Amino acid sequence: MTQAMARFERIFKTYIMKTRKTTTSQNWMKRISFITFAVSLFIGTSAVQAQNEERIVSGVVNSVDGPIMGATVVLKGTTIAIPTNASGEFVFPKPLKEKDVLVVSYLGYENVEVTIGAETTYVEPIFKDNPIVIYGALRVLDASEATKNNP
What we know:
alpha+beta, rod-shaped, Immunoglobulin-like, three-stranded mixed β-sheet, four-stranded antiparallel β-sheet
């Protein structure tokens, strides 16, 4: 039994010696390499996330007279749209990226385009008054002419 124990100790010591041949400086190099790799991976993915970050955008559509109910907010180049509520408020149904353009329209006003910035989550487009001039002519008819045209 002692010979078996001696043999086991010799094999075990040889195994330990073979597996622990790395020096302390090699261990530190491995740790530094791993930490550098992990940090560069983290920085690379966060930069890509920042570029492609999508956000929910909301806002209020106003004119000089106050909020506009029923204005249409459309993502330019798509058919995705949403109307404003009674207070002129909206929450766009699709998350938007930087440089997306919202087109806000309402009858009687010129369209307003709003470009989404890097950190835009709230927009407040304002319609400016666009005076409309109507030209026409008025002719006064007497009673006999009016009955000729309208039997």
